[in-house]
Specification:
The chain is mainly α. The protein is 78% helix and 0% strand. Its main location: membrane.
Length: 411
Amino acid sequence: MISGVSLLRGRLLVFCAIAMSALVLRLAVTSFSPLASQIREDIGFSPTVVGVFGMVPTAMFALFGIATPALARRWGLERTALVAMLMAGVGMAARAFMDETWSLLALSALALGGMGIGNVVIPPLVKRYFSDRLALVSSVYIVGVQLGTIAPAFAAVPLADAYGWRVSIGVWAVFGFAAAMPWIVILARRRGAAAEEQTGEAPQVHGQVWRSPVGWGMAGMFGMTSLVTYSMFTWIPDILGDAGASPAFGGAMVGLFSLMGLVGAFGGPTMCARMNNPFPAVLACAACMLVGFAGLWIAPMSVPILWIVLLGLGPSTFPMALTLINLRTRTQAGSSALSGFTQGVGYAVACAGPLLFGVLHDATSGWTASFALLTLAVVVLVTGGYQACRPRALEDSWHKSDTPEKDLAAR
């Protein structure tokens, strides 16, 4: 019989594994982007290839978002998380030694594929081990994701100036390998156990997420949030530059936009857990986005910090969506399936955001059509959020034959 002390230690180890893994989930993205021009000049690929590198993250997140639930059913959640961290570590380390464009791209894709698996597998792991502390642990891992986004963006150029770009993009592999270690220990402790709950194998999924309005609502909310976020990451410097701002100011505003994500990471999960229906919070986030869009479109340099702060608060729907993955499911299998569908479909849509924003700008020689695209995205986000926030469970509506919706039990 497992003692209380052993159970506590086991949960503490899983908590550390989840927190360390969360730090890894964006490292390959933001460690590369600030150095793209420098790497291009050294290796010799065209500006078009830089755009390909820019689309790889969301493409890999989408591909592995769709594939990961099947991998988790086959390997178990813990083993899948271990594979994700090893892929991330190997990809980030090996790409630092590459001298050819396509080998650099392939190894970047390997690292990002591992991160895409991690994106999907962490929410059901939180549900499995911390169903009594969903808001707290969700906040911890989402803050970890945000820190893993911000830190490389600020450190990449100083590291490259001091040690070269190869060290700057490769050093982050240490975090991937470090995050793999606790999963190895967890799996070693479970070796030899025959019961399903001891091996970590997820129960078989008996429903189809795409048949549920919960699934499509979550995908719409998450996907449109990601589309807006990646569009702003890409184009804030150009928007402000056209209005007369310096490149340094534009870069600082991207940093501010990133930092505001910590506000949602700290507050979003708790708010979702305490509110039976957090849709009013989705409306508030949408209003922040729309005001920020209007400010950047009409008078970008009047109060630019205010516009960027509002834009940074708007994507608080991102941590809300990640938390709702667990709050709108009853089972680990449901959480895994909903996580994969939400992020697979969501990131697939988000791929097009930065590209379409730029195409519309080039076609119209202005930003009006581009911001109209993002306004339409916010409308879809609100529509999806309405479905995602309603207090009901995925498992009540993901079967071929419709069953009556049931309110979620009190959390």
